[in-house]
Amino acid sequence: MQYRSPAFVEDCLAISSINLIVIRLRTGHNRLNAHMNRKFKLAPSPTCACGQEDQTAEHILQRCPLLDEERKEVWPSPTPLQTKLYGSRQELEKTTTFITSAGLIV
Ligand SMILES: [Zn+2]
To answer: What predicted TM-score, i.e. pTM, was given to this entire model?
Structure first.
């Protein structure tokens, strides 16, 4: 068996948690209201807590007014959804940081 350094293992774990969040956001198979309500009737409404739109990945990443502060912290200038979901590993890390700091479970 090949020896793997702890740093390597840690890196793999970090990558897999980033992937999990990003894949859920990309596919729409996530625990946001829009999916949980339409697909499983597990959320009372598809609407976001802000009341403006359905709570989808695009809404929370791009527009939700409740998350403006967290969004500006991670992305000081406007960033396309494409970059947040399909950008470099560094970009995907920002997306994960945003979701985590917003306290969202996706
Ligand atoms: Zn919202």
So the answer is: 0.84
